[in-house]
Amino acid sequence: MAFIESQLLTRVAYGFTGGPTWLTTRNELNSGIVARNAERSLPLYVYSAPYRNIQAGHIASVIAAYNACLGGVHSFRFKDHQDYQGTAEVLGLGTGAAGQTLQLVKTYTFGSTSLVRTIKKPVTGTVSLFEDGTPLASTVNTTTGVVTFTATAASPSKTITATYEFDVPVMFTNDDLQFSFNEYNAHTAEINLKEDRSA
């Protein structure tokens, strides 16, 4: 298995579905109370991505990706059209030291409860860091999501935030790729993808 740092064709059609999945065990007691336990600490993202009426050049790129990945063996980047941005995401506090590193994250909050998602595949050229709203010079490793300050960082009282776009590391889950052909020289297919948490 390997990870290919390339993004699958983004021209998905209406009908795209996907998002986070959890695994929950439920045990209903005689009292009617349902005891619940999360079997995953983080969600696993799955997608069904339809390609509708794409032209020959686009179908060639999808077939090339599928074959180069040996079907479901290797994983790659995919744009989740419903969730691909982080805006003013809090990464932590500055230490005042040059070369400080922080991991990109995205926080999902509902009421007083939050879940932090590690972002490992930011899109090149989209990452901006700020200290209390002021731009901060930095570099980003787009294969890990680790950012490094290129000048003296903010003092410990300064909050570091990031704005960025990101991809999801995924793998193909279907072992066949079938395109249909219509009279307008266009092609249609639907592919199924699952997040690769090891990437």
Tell me what the structure shows.
With 199 residues, the protein is mostly beta strands. It has 2 domains: 3-79 and 168-195, no CATH class; 85-165, no CATH class. It is built from 1 helix and 18 strands. It has one helix at residues 56-68, and strands at residues 3-7, 17-21, 24-28, 34-38, 44-54, 75-78, 85-93, 101-103, 105-110, 113-118, 128-131, 134-136, 138-141, 146-149, 159-165, 168-172, 180-181, 187-195. The strands form 5 sheets. Strands 1, 2, 5, 6, 16, 17 and 18 form a 7-stranded mixed beta sheet that branches. The longest helix is centred in the first third of the chain and has 13 residues, at 56-68. The relative contact order is 0.24. The mean pLDDT is 90.
Radius of gyration: 20 Å
Form type: globular
Number of helices: 1
The ordered H/E elements are EEEEEHEEEEEEEEEEEEE
Helix fraction bin: under 10%
The rounded distance between the terminal residues' Cα atoms is: 10 Å
Strand content: over 45%
Spans of 5+ residues with little confidence (pLDDT < 50)? none
Biggest beta sheet summary: 7 strands, mixed
Structural class determined from secondary elements: mainly beta
Q: Please, what is the average pLDDT? A: 90
Task: Find the count of extended strands (DSSP E, 2+ residues).
Answer: 18
Quick synopsis:
The protein has 199 residues and is mainly beta. The chain is 7% helix and 49% strand.
List the main descriptive attributes of the protein structure presented here.
199 residues, mainly beta, 2 domains, 7-stranded mixed β-sheet, 4-stranded antiparallel β-sheet, 1 helix, 7% helix, globular
